[in-house]
Design goal:
Layout (H helix, E strand, L loop, with lengths): L1 E5 L7 E5 L9 E10 L2 H7 L15 E9 L11 E4 L2 E2 L13 E2 L11 E5 L3 E3 L6 H5 L2 H14 L7 E4 L5 H12 L3 E6 L2 H10 L3 E4 L5 H9 L2 E6 L6 H7 E9 L12 H6 L3 E4 L5 H14 L5 E6 L3 H10 L5 E5 L2
Parallel strand pairs: 10-11, 10-13, 11-12, 13-14, 14-15, 16-17
Antiparallel strand pairs: 1-2, 3-4, 3-8, 3-17, 4-5, 5-9, 6-7
Helix pairs in contact: 3-4, 3-9
Length: 333
């Protein structure tokens, strides 16, 4: 089958190659993929910045398709089903935190940027009927990460003021939609005014361009501060975000694309009784709850663009530049 594999010996770090599938294990299924979606971790793997990467692994954590073959111990009812794939593997039994064996599909196990993927049947969920394959492929990783950040850790409530930073990325756009549906007063920030305009179309109260001087004062003046902030950047932005939280507020972060913070205003944190909470992906329960929520509310992801697998390198270039608004999807078949 054709697949996009990591190859650090090439100038771009990835290449389309022919890959041979292994024999199906008793509890596995073979899914013919119709669409897959990129995540930031795919780009980090390409750049060699992700831990324990190895050449030859098929990248991609998100996918939607049709079950074409099943292992001998899998219920035959799965054959022919339209499915999405939970890319969080081996979470374990503890809802609070993932196990030491936790992995994300697409490194070190072969992922979804391919014509087929083989996964344990427990990783499947029926594709939401209101979504196309391209839309459904955009849901799993980002939708799950946003759901856990906002509901499990953030404990968002109607009427709260919520700031979602870096609107444009997949997790941020899902967190924004979820928070609006939850009845929060939602604001976003971004480096680009057109991304803020898209967020306004979705129903946010307003947005702030963090490249513009004075955006922190503007945000504080308009909102009075936030009950909850969902962030993925950290780095030197942390002191600013802490300053935007009201007493008793919470900052939930699911990434650190700008690295570790240079300074923590510990006095402000303890005096204002603030919470800084890390999160990643989600448990199997989170995934089931997320899918049910998305189906009930008929949520659809924001799709930036769709390209065939043959043009996947263009998709990576777009992600690397950070110019996308929403998910970048690869059409497989």
């Amino acid at each position: 089958m054709k697949a996009l594999v990591l190859d650090q010996n090439t100038s771009f770090g990835i290449k389309i190659s022919e890959v041979q599938l292994a024999a199906l294990k008793p509890h596995e299924v073979k899914v013919k993929l119709h669409a897959a979606a990129l995540n930031r971790r795919d780009e980090w793997c390409r750049q060699g910045r992700y831990p324990n990467i190895k050449n030859g692994v098929v990248l991609g954590s998100d996918g939607a398709g049709v079950v074409e073959a099943i292992g001998e111990e899998v219920d035959k009812d799965w054959l022919g089903k339209e499915v999405i794939i939970n890319s969080a593997n081996y979470w374990g039994e503890n809802q609070k935190v993932q196990s030491a064996d936790f992995q994300i599909l697409g490194m070190p196990a072969n992922g979804t940027l391919a014509e087929y993927v083989q996964v344990d049947v427990s990783r499947l969920a029926i594709k939401p009927a209101h979504m196309s394959f391209e839309e459904a492929a955009a849901l799993p990783l980002a939708g799950l990460t946003a759901y856990r950040a906002l509901f499990y850790h953030g404990q968002v409530k109607a009427g709260q003021k919520v700031l979602v930073t870096g609107f444009g990325g997949g997790v941020a756009q899902f967190a924004t939609q979820y928070a609006i549906i939850a009845g929060a007063e939602v604001y976003v920030n971004s480096s680009k005014d057109d991304k803020i305009s898209k967020a306004v179309e979705l129903g946010v109260k307003g947005g702030f361009n963090y490249k513009k001087e004075g955006w922190l004062d503007e945000a504080k003046g308009i909102t009075g501060g936030f009950d909850l902030i969902i962030d993925s950047a950290m780095g030197p932005t942390l002191p600013d975000l802490i300053g935007l939280l009201i007493p008793g507020g919470k900052l939930v972060f699911y990434g650190a694309t700008l690295g570790n913070p240079p300074m923590l205003d510990a006095r402000r944190v303890f005096w204002n009784q603030l919470t800084i909470q890390g999160t990643t992906m989600g448990s199997d329960k989170d995934f089931r709850d997320m899918v049910d929520f998305v189906i009930k509310e008929k949520i659809k992801p924001v799709i930036d663009s769709v390209r065939p697998l043959e043009r996947v390198l263009e998709a990576f270039e777009l992600m690397s530049a950070g110019n996308q608004t929403g998910k970048i999807v690869v059409k497989i078949s």
